[in-house]
Amino acid sequence: MKDQVDGHILSACEKGIATITISNPARRNAFSVAMLQAMRRAVDTSLADPDCRVLVLRGAGGCFSAGGDINDFRATLYLEAPARLDAYRALIENWVNPVILALRRAHQPVLSLVQGACAGYGLSLALASDCVIAADDAVFSTAYTGLALPCDGGQSVFLMQALGERRARELMWSARRVAAPEALALGLVEQVVPAAGLDGAAQARIAHFAQGPRHALAEIKRLLVAAGPSLEAQLAAEALAFARCAATMDFVEGVTAFADRRAPVFRGR
What we know:
By secondary structure, the chain is α/β, with parallel strands linked by helices. It has one domain (4-196, 212-260): 2-enoyl-CoA Hydratase, Chain A, domain 1 (Alpha-Beta Complex). It is built from eleven helices and ten strands. The strands form two sheets. A seven-stranded mixed β-sheet has the order 1-2-3-4-5-7-10, with helices on both faces. β2 (9-14) and β3 form a beta hairpin. α1 (33-48) packs parallel to α3 and α5 packs across α6 (165-174). The longest helix has 25 residues, at 81-105. The chain is globular, with a radius of gyration of 18 Å. The model has no long low-confidence stretch (mean pLDDT 96).
């Protein structure tokens, strides 16, 4: 696979190691709709490459991804509630869920290298990976309830599996920031290293995957995924829940408040 640039999503493959870089550091690598579409194309192309033995996800500029781009959220506020519901459900079903399913169904190991902010859909991508190595400056957050949203990208599955219901609910309800040491203690990441040593730690893990028994690793991944709940069904449920909440006035208030840099005042409407 040749190096590719699709807007703010960069793809490369060298010696069997495919790397997808989220590259919009001026926006903290927040995903616009165009970037969601480019991400799906990049993931599909990388995983279909017969030379790809490992897929690495990372962000540019010292940040993994802050989640969805608030400008794209704001652009939908003019829509009537039913149209907004339909728009968000279609967006998630067409561009978010297929990426998460592809990462979980891939026979290749998927490794996320996380620096700085890892929130919202960025957190979903990391959790969908088989291994996460975090820099000591990484900060994780579900982020969604600040915009009066539930979750997407499989977070309800991945956090439940990693933390159990009570801890998952606490993180998702509060949307609080989780520093790298706590993320390690909770089991959200496998390793925390100094930011300057992130690439070195990644190379060691990548070599382990790339040189390991390809078929055995793939079967272990398949069995572990199959042992869990139906990800596809839960992703569909998340898409509907997200869309329902995006159709509320609380969502309008959450997005407006975020853009205005003030605390939201939710009224349950």
